[in-house]
From TrEMBL:
Superkingdom assignment: Eukaryota
GO BP: any one term: polysaccharide catabolic process
Species annotation: Leucocoprinus birnbaumii
The entry's keywords: Carbohydrate metabolism, Cell membrane, Cell wall biogenesis/degradation, Glycoprotein, Hydrolase, Membrane, Polysaccharide degradation, Signal
Protein name: glucan endo-1,3-beta-D-glucosidase
UniProt lineage: Eukaryota, Fungi, Dikarya, Basidiomycota, Agaricomycotina
């Protein structure tokens, strides 16, 4: 459970930048006129849009099928009126693809469908592949009814050409008409998989098939779609005729096969690239990610198109974590949000893609968000624009003794989206941030210091417990010349960190953290807000203001307010009780002590660094001689480590993977085992053994602020160890002191 303290720090840094720019530019920034609307089809295209009549209801509760908690009736109702939940209430995880070439029995189908429904909270099963056994689709439909789960049926084309798909189409449509449960569990019929990509039919012929199927199913009100890749449509000139025929969009999302693929945690731009194409060309229709996943192994037929693409269980897990982390964004996509299936249910169905392995064991914990289990950020007020009619001036008004103030509104107008109680408030001692401190509202603790020279060309931001600034800003007034230097890193251009920064210093400015984009924006009155990539405000700045309250004029200091998302995010895989916990006196490892958590508060380790941080010594409590001395010289191969009683060696001779860019993973060997420090997609630092790539044997928790029972509490940083790590705890502490430095270098 590692907090995103860097995100909190970055909020301060970007705030300082923006306020400085406001002062230096001496003018308000222009309105950010961009909106989030999707390009609409032209008038000449509208005649081709034919969406099936919506007979659903919009309740998110358990009064519609297949909402979680919905109680299946013994018999199907007399009509579909009010039966289906609105598709707009179905986003994020919705279920699994399920391969049926083994022609599973009715009992197997019912068992697996029930497991998907009850264990994973799935709403739907997407059929993948084909079984030509007589009565098979009756078994699928009946099993789904008994399990209380919906079905996305499939007309399977296969990979060997031929016209078997035509017979499968006719059998499926016949079954949908004859089975009395069919229209109450079958949510959609797909043509697939990837008929455009495989060039089974031309775009025009495929569109014709969709229209004919819709006509044959019109009495059942079952939507019809095509399950295919964005690339397949693109190589057919957009295949507008096919999209116009489809009732919903079933998009394949397989970023592992992209030519620029690397790891799953870095795949969001690839996902967004294809998803944006469907949003822009999908005519406002509901989108599902149907064939959607990342393989845990490669084999003939499942090979990447990029040498950097990595296939293993961790990357399969990371991909689903990536989608889960963007739950709120998927909710807001036009057309009713994006629902996604996990491809597939089991490795027995297709090697490497399953959530279960071939022995029936979960390959990794799988508990993603769905629309009935929203993430915390859904409680935030969703905002589409800072340009709201009620705004307040950030200019400090001049108050004269004889001024007539009839009401508060003539002094200040407050943006209503900022009028709520945040999780954390930092009060500024000065409004202009030239030289100020930021204190926590309530206990008055100083968290940050901001110091500028007389010309404001150089500004340092630091914490009170350190003599080394977190960052130093050099504002030189020329595009690409303004610089920023983060602690322990080389100087870079501000524009390399803040996207959108330019010579005119106009809004918005944004930075990325853990695959999310955070943007500072200002409205025409220059009010500042920090927005996440779902366009929800998570931090905002209030300048010094005057208010007329109960007949008296009162002044209010400037402050920076933060929601919970801007304070801390927690990784569930670290949420357990370790054998040993070492509390850090300071968050960093430049100079700190590590004490045993508990009543004894016993000092176990001491880490001492020179002012320049080029030499660090690690001591245990039993000796005055250091266990190890690390020399950081900044040149690959020159960084050294000296263990007590041993010769000096290159650091990368002990820590495999340690190199000039200081990136993860880095590992060492002990008693025949390999132990690896690495970070997850949230930049949380953990030590993993080669026996278990999922659960760390040691992990680090940063200093954090958390809202507990409505109160803001502070938690010291600590290093936690399981029994396996305790047996080699000296090596763990030494390697941690280096891994922590690498983590700091790679976090920004």
């Amino acid at each position: 459970m590692l907090s995103l303290a860097h995100l909190r720090t970055w909020a301060q840094l970007t705030l300082v930048l923006l306020c400085l720019f406001t002062i230096l530019a001496a003018r308000a920034s222009p309105i950010d006129g961009a909106d989030n609307t999707v390009e609409q089809a032209s008038d000449e295209d509208e005649t081709f849009v034919d969406i099936v009549q919506d007979l659903t209801i919009s309740l998110r509760g358990s009064d519609c099928f297949p909402a979680l908690g919905f109680k299946m009736p013994k018999e199907p109702p007399s009509s579909l009126n009010g039966w289906w939940c609105s598709m707009s209430s179905e986003y994020a995880f919705v279920g699994f693809s399920y391969e049926v070439s083994e022609c599973q029995s009715f009992s197997e189908l019912r068992r697996d469908f029930t497991d998907i429904r009850q264990r994973f909270r799935g709403r739907y099963v997407r059929i993948y592949g084909a079984c030509d056994r007589r009565g098979f689709y009756d078994d699928v439909i009946n099993a789904a009814w008994q399990a209380g789960i919906g079905i996305h049926a499939l007309i399977w084309f296969g990979f060997d050409g031929g016209n078997k798909w035509e017979a499968r189409r006719d059998v499926l449509i016949s079954t949908l008409h004859s089975n009395r449960f069919a229209k109450f569990v079958v949510r959609a019929v797909q043509f697939g998989s990837e008929p455009l990509f495989d060039e089974v039919l031309s775009a025009g012929e495929l569109a014709k098939q969709v229209w004919e199927a819709k006509q044959r199913l019109s009495g059942l009100e079952i939507p019809v779609t095509v399950s295919d890749l964005a690339y397949s449509f693109q190589k057919n000139g957009g295949a507008r005729s096919v999209i116009s025929a489809m009732d919903i969009i079933d998009a394949h999302m397989l970023p592992f096969f992209a030519q620029d693929a690397s790891t799953a945690r870095n795949a969001w731009p690839l996902v967004q690239r294809d998803l944006n194409w469907f949003v822009q060309n999908g005519q406002g229709k509901k989108i599902h990610l149907s064939e959607n996943g990342w393989p845990s192994k490669t084999y003939p037929g499942v090979q990447p198109n990029s040498k950097k693409a990595v296939a293993n269980i961790q990357n399969e897990r990371d991909y689903y974590n990536l989608l889960d982390a963007h739950c709120q964004y998927l909710k807001t996509v036009p057309g009713g949000g994006v629902g996604w299936f996990a491809h597939l249910y089991s490795d027995n169905q297709e090697p490497g893609y399953g959530i279960y392995d071939t022995s029936g064991n979960l390959k990794f914990p799988f508990n993603p968000h769905d629309s009935m289990r929203p993430e915390v950020s859904e409680t935030f007020v969703h905002r589409h624009s800072l340009s709201v009619p009620m705004v307040r001036s950030t200019a400090k008004p001049r108050v004269q003794k004889d001024m007539n103030i009839p009401n508060d509104s003539q002094i200040t107008l407050v943006n209503p989206q900022f009028e709520r109680e945040p999780a954390l408030v930092l009060v500024l001692s000065r409004d202009n941030i030239k030289n100020t401190v930021m204190r926590m509202k309530g206990d008055n603790e100083v968290l940050y210091k901001v110091e500028s020279d007389a010309s404001m060309a150089r500004t340092s931001i630091s914490r009170p417990d350190s003599d080394v600034p977190i960052a130093v800003l050099e504002l030189k007034g020329l595009f690409s010349r303004d610089k920023i230097t983060f602690q322990g890193e080389e100087t870079r251009n501000v524009s390399d960190w803040l996207s959108g920064y330019g010579a005119l210093r106009t809004f918005p400015f944004s930075f990325k953290y853990n695959e999310k984009r955070y943007s500072w924006k200002a409205n025409y009155m220059n009010q500042l807000g920090l927005y996440n990539d779902e366009n929800a405000v998570i931090a905002w700045f209030e300048g010094y203001k005057l208010r007329y309250i109960d007949g008296a004029l009162r002044g209010f200091k400037a402050f920076l307010a933060m929601e919970a998302e801007a304070i801390t995010l927690v990784g569930p895989e670290f949420d357990r009780e370790p054998l040993l916990v070492l509390m850090l006196h300071r968050d960093g490892t430049r100079a700190t002590t590590l004490r045993r958590r508990g009543g004894s508060n016993e000092l176990l380790y001491n880490i001492v660094s020179e002012t320049s941080s080029t030499r660090t010594s690690i001591y245990n409590s039993l000796s005055n001689d250091p266990m190890a001395v690390v020399e950081f010289k900044g040149i690959w191969g020159r960084d050294k480590i000296t263990f007590h009683g041993q010769r000096k060696k290159k650091l990368n001779e002990w820590l495999l993977g340690y190199g000039p860019w200081q990136t993860f993973p880095i590992s060492f060997h002990h008693n025949g085992r390999r132990y690896t420090w690495k970070t997850n997609f949230m930049n949380q630092l953990g030590l993993y053994s080669d026996r278990d790539n999922t659960n760390p044997v040691a992990w680090f928790e940063r200093y954090k602020l958390r809202v507990v029972d409505g109160a803001l509490r502070k938690f010291s940083a600590f290093l936690a160890m399981e029994e396996e790590a305790v047996e080699m705890q000296d090596l763990v502490v030494i390697s941690f002191s280096i891994a922590k430095k690498v983590a700091h270098s790679s976090v920004i």
